[in-house]
Amino acid sequence: MAGAERGEEAALEQGLLAPEEPNQLIYTGDGSVDFSGNPVVKETTGRWKACPFILGNECCERLAYYGISTNLVTYLTKKLHDGNASAASNVTTWQGTCYLTPLIGAILADAYWGRYWTIATFSTIYFIGMAILTLSASVPVLMPPSCEGSFCPPASPFQYTVFFLGLYLIALGTGGIKPCVSSFGADQFDDTDPSERIQKGSFFNWFYFSINIGALISSSFLVWVQDNVGWGLGFGIPTVFMGLAIISFFSGTSIYRFQKPGGSPITRVCQVVVASLRKWHVHVPEDSSLLYELPDGVSAIEGSRQLEHTDELICLDKAATITDVDVKTADFTNPWRICTVTQGMVLDPSLGSFKVPPASLSTFDTLSVILCVPIYDYILVPLARRFTGNERGFTELQRMGIGLVISVITMSVAAILEIKRLAIAREQHLVDQNVPVPLSIFWQIPQYFLVGLSEVFTFIGALEFFYDQSPDAMRSLCSALQLLTTAFGNYLSTFILTMVAYFTTRGGNPGWIPDNLNQGHLDYFFWLLAALSFLNLVIYVVCAGKYKSKKAA
After folding, report:
1. Boundaries of domain holding 504
2. TM spans, by residue (predicted)?
3. pTM exceeding 0.85
C-alpha cells in the first residue's frame, strides 16, 4: 500500500494525475442551482433523469399546437364559413405571430424570470387559450348556424372574438415555451463535464424526435377526428394533452438544474454601444489581456461565464478599454462607461378505398424524422466520430451544411416529379381539365422523407448552434432569434410566390402556379427554389468558413 501511495505521489508530481477536488466531483461546474437557489449535486439532478419530464412536456405541447394548426384552414372555411383567401391569411398571420412572440418569452426568461418560471407561466396561458378554443368549437352559441344549401351564415363578431381570443392566447403562450424548453433541457447537462457535454448533443436529437411524435399524432389521428367525429372533440383532445404537458413539466421540479437570469440582454447591448461611443477616440490596446474583465474568471453577468476575446467587432473593444479617467476615479461599476469583454460578445389521395386527408401528407415528413433521429444518434454519430475526431460526430456548422445540401436535392427531386406529372397530363389530354392526373400522390413520399432528413441535420444542428454559441445569460433570446428566422422564411416564401405570380401571369399567361396546375409549370418554381437553395448553401459555406466558435474562458 505504501508503494502504491508513493507511486501515486510521484504521478501527481509529474502532472500525470490531477489531485481530487471534492467540490468539482459533487457540484456542477457551470453555475447551475436547484429550485431553492443552492448549488446542485451532480449525481441527483439533471442529465437524462430530468429530461423525460421536459421531453414529455414538449411532445404534448407540440401535439396540442399541431392539433390546432394543421387543420385550421379547414375549420375556418367549413365551420366559421370564412373565405379561402381570408382563412389562409388568418392562419399565416397567426403562425407568424407564433414565431414572433418567442422574443417576448426569451427576454423575460433571460432577464427576469428564468426559463423554468417562463415556461410555467406561458404554459398556463397556452392552456387557457386551448380551453377557450375548445369551447368556441363546442358551444352552439359560439358557432354560426350550419349551411342551408349554398347559403352559409357568417360568424358573428362575438363568435369571431371568442375564437381569435383563444387562438392568440395560444400564440402568446407558445412564445414563452418555444425559446425556453430546448435551452432548459440543455441546461440539465454540465458544459464543463466532457461526458455530459456529449449527452447534451444527443439531447437535441431526442428533443426534435419528441416534437415529431406529437406532430405525427396530430397530423394523422387528430386530423381524422376533426374531419370525421367533430371539432369539439378534435380541439378537446389537444387541450387535455396541453394539461398533461404542464403536469409533466412540474413533475421534474425537484431534479431540475436551473440557471439564474442574468438581467436584460438588450440593456447590455445598449451599454456596450454607449460605452464604445463615449470612448470613440480611445486607442484599443493590441494585447486583449489589457481589456477590462473581472478577476478570477468571474462574469459581470449573473449566471454566466466569462468568454474568450475574439477579433470580431473590434470597434466594440473600446467599451472594455481602461482609460486614465477610469483609473483615477477607480469606478469600474458603471457599465455605461466601461464594460467587461464578456458583456461585449452579443451576438392527396387514395390508398384503395381509403382517402388520405389532405392535411395528413406531412405525416411522411414526420415519420422520416422519427426514423432518422435514432439512426443518426446511434449509428451515424459513432461512425462519423471515428473520422472527424469530434465528440458529436460533426460540428454544428458541418451538420447544418449537410442539411442544406439535402434541401437542394429535395427541391430537385420535386421538380423532376412535377415534370413527370405534367408529361402524363399531356399524354392523357388533361391539360385543360382541372383534375388529378393518374399518378399516385404517394410518389411525393420520397420528397417528404428527404425534407425530414434535412431537418434532422439543419434544424437540430441550429438548435445546438444557437445554444452552444450564445452567452450563458442570452440562450433563450438566441433560441428565439433562431425561431425568428423561420418567420422570416415564411414571409420570404410569400414574397417569392407573389413575385412569381406577378411576373409569370403577365400578357394573359396562366403563369407557373395557376388554379389548374395542369396548365402551369410548377416544375419551374421548384427549380427556382432549388437554385435559391444552392445560392443559400454557397453563402452559408463562405460565412461558416469565417466563423470562429465561442469558447468559455
Report:
1. 339-546
2. 116-138, 158-177, 206-225, 231-250, 402-425, 445-467, 479-504, 524-543
3. no
